[in-house]
Amino acid sequence: MNVNPYIKPRFNTTTAVMADVILALLPLVAVAYIAYGLQALLVIGTAVGTALVTDFVFSAVYVKKTTAVLDGSAVITGLLLAFTLSPATPWYVVAFGAFAAILFGKLLWGGLGKNRFNPALMGREFMAAFFPVMSSAAIWVTKSFINVKEIGFLGTNSYLATYTSGLLYKTTGALGEYSVAAIALGGLYLLIRRRISWHIPFALLAVFSTGFWLVNDGDDLKYSAAGVLLGALFMATDMPSSPNSPNGKLYYGGMIGLSAFAFILAGVRFEYMSFSILLLNGFTPKINEVFMPRAWGHKHDFKALAEKVFLLTLSIAGGVLALLSLHYYGLTSYVVYLYIVYIIFKFNFSFSDKISNPI
Amino acid sequence: MMHITSLKSKTKHIPIATLADPPELYLPLYGYKGTMDLLVQPGETVKKYQPVAASEGVFAACVHAPVSGTIEGIEDINGQPHLKLINNFKDNEYELPSLNPDGLTNAQILSILKEYGIEGSGGARFPTHLKYDVEGRISTLIINGAECEPYLSADYALLKNELPALVKAIQLLQKVVRAQWVVIAIEKQHRELKKLLSPLLPVHAIETHLLPNEYPQGGELQLIKSVTGKELPKGSIPAQHGIMVSNVGTLWAVYNAFYGNKPYTDRVITLSGEKARHIGNYSVKVGTPVWFIMQELGMDWNPEQQTVILGGPMMGRAVHDARSPINKGTGGVLIMPQAKANDNNCIQCGYCADACPQRLMPMEFVRPEARADKERLLQLNLTDCIECGACAYICPSDVPLMKSIFTGKQTLQAS
Ligand code: SF4
Ligand code: SF4
Fold this sequence. Notes:
The structure holds 2 protein chains of 2 kinds. Chain A is mainly α. Chain A folds into 2 domains: 11-195 and 332-359, no CATH class; 196-328, no CATH class. Chain A contains 12 helices and no strands. Chain A has helices spanning 14-63, 73-83, 91-103, 119-130, 159-168, 180-192, 199-214, 225-235, 246-265, 272-290, 302-328, 332-349. In chain A, helix 10 runs antiparallel to helix 11 (302-328). The longest helix of chain A has 50 residues, at 14-63. Among the domains of chain B are: 118-260, NADH-ubiquinone oxidoreductase 51kDa subunit (Rossmann fold, 3-Layer(aba) Sandwich); 351-413, no CATH class. Chain B has 14 helices and 17 strands. Chain B has helices at residues 106-115, 128-131, 154-161, 163-177, 192-197, 200-204, 220-228, 248-260, 290-296, 351-355, 366-370, 374-379, 390-394, 401-413, and strands spanning 16-18, 24-28, 37-38, 45-46, 51-55, 61-64, 69-77, 80-87, 140-144, 181-187, 206-211, 243-247, 266-272, 280-285, 306-310, 317-319, 332-337. The longest helix of chain B is centred in the middle third of the chain and has 15 residues, at 163-177. Chain B is globular. The interface between A and B is large, with 40 and 56 residues. Bound molecules: iron/sulfur cluster (2 copies). The site of one iron/sulfur cluster has 15 residues of chain B, from helix 10.
């Protein structure tokens, strides 16, 4: 190094950051194994394995780095992708998803940290676009695979006990959604290790639950609390695709909560979280711009700020409506096709020149 | 802001030792602004404390011979002119008019600050005579005892061992500034000093203020905010807000000038670092080359094996020239192992923005700097950066943030 500073904190490398996230996700792997046994491990293993192989091969080809696979980010993408899937998902569909997540979700943007969208969710949308089975209700029929149906820590004799065991363990939903407690534990670890900040999950969950509280018939709406929590703690907080400033994070989290709620109200059954996170991912650069922190000794121009926030909110609302209409007419896969054209075009004409830049 | 392991406990309790005089000295001829003109000729024999170079004007500065000897000539070290002086070890002293510190007028005090070459010792080397030329508009005088750089403990050692002298210097400067409130600010990690300092309160009306152990608490703007609650924008002159900040090292130089009749020719530094031997706090002559310091303390100058840093590890400068000297703003010499940088992409973790005391977005500088986009750099308030290095310290990917900050600032200046 030839410029200051000449010291670095210990154990603070990119790999250490990734290792912490993987550690936080491991309890979820264990819970998934308890619930669906080898079937769960097959899905998770296929996702992680394919992600690693894709990362290794295509990093070498496009990013000209053979060591990139060692940073651990592909493991996280694989795990997170698997956690959004049903244990009954066919292995080749999982493999396709993980491949698309790494290649189209990360590498074609120029590699680690440069992606605009959460790669795991991107992979999920690719699966839905190319394999109609992903959007069918049939894929969620998983009874025949169940390993351990319930764990009777607390018995079933009172409402409270049933409710609490439901938080600890259940067997419905996607692979990462079987234990609210395990998700919360992982999230807490990341918060303590400062790998995520509280702003995004807090704002997201606060707005989301306020929505339900305001709409009285909230009980009839179908959503998965564990899925929302998983999204809030692990997906929405994905570093490259989320804003950097505290206020930006609050706004971003709040808007994800709001859009997810809107999607649920409008009857989107499974993809409310991935839709809203991916949508807000797209607005991250704009949010960073609008919510730039007030530099030391500077003053905010509150009127201009309010105007910018208003316009930004308006365009996000437009995005929600557009996505909803596409979803209504079953056209969301066309967004994915367009994205493929866009990202290939961008990579060849712009990103590939900047591969060696760290940002 | 953020917490950094301070590593000061290695040296902070070691009393100040005096390092031997070197056989050759390199006196920096550059000041806060501009270069100084020679007052002597190469080949000339000079006496100890004789002024050898000076500049005129608002930012007037001067430098004195710390030892007696022969002027050899001007040499270029790290791109800056230095005057080489060969020590004859005779210690012939230059005759300076004697001083009666208690009977001086304000104008006399200011002119002595100028003639004795007193400069800010915290690194920026702002001329002290200029700083104190305020005509009583000051309400708060803050003594900056927050050496927030890890390893450095020279100011701590001075506070601990030379407190009466520093108080005398404060009282002298108080004649000029007449501040209602005088505060010595120290970091919480040094709270044991408070016991030492607290008897001052009734006698001299000097208060102590404990600062959080955060980096960069010693930055002028951050210090002013912590003590007074005022957030001054970068580039503002604290005196215009009734605030004056002086460094402990500067007080020591003031004391030596007025009570020891000694121009600014030596200072206290910390020698430390992971590869250093005989670490501690040393009083050294201004102009002492690093090779000599290392040799005296039983180390070899070996740039392949170690990094030698003048100043602190966060804001200091690695030197590759063995002749690089201690100047009036150098608070330490650190001998560190060669560091390896990671080669990773920015992961947008935002740690750099969280750590930035000026609340900037350091990761955003990189791209506009690469394409020399001045407008964008200004929009991102690059000019507000105080170059504290906090962002690069915390970055897990070792993104060359400081490089883009320095080059970006150069780009802006080149307009
Ligand atoms: S060097 Fe500049 S940008 Fe980096 S943390 Fe310090 S003030 Fe902020
Ligand atoms: S700390 Fe480094 S990796 Fe993190 S956002 Fe800043 S530049 Fe990027």
